[in-house]
Amino acid sequence: PLIAVTCATGWECYAIVEELVQTRRFRVRALYRTHGTQAAARLQALHARTEAEAPGLLTLQPGVDMNSATTLTGAFAGCDGVVLYN
Known about the structure:
Layout: E1 2-5, H1 11-23, E2 27-31, H2 38-53, E3 58-61, H3 69-76, E4 81-83
Parallel strand pairs: 1-2, 1-4, 2-3
């Protein structure tokens, strides 16, 4: 199953992404707004570690505007579940 996690650079949602990846039971699409921040770098480091061990398990999608129905519809396409942090 593919699970999308919104606000993935925040502490709570980063922890959810990390836990889902560690279980190896789900593919995870980590959605976040701003590329180039320290929080995004932490998520990118997790992505690099995950790719080395289980390619394709974690994908990153920056630029996700939580106020745009069109953006969210595209970000959730093909997902079996969503962790929506609001």
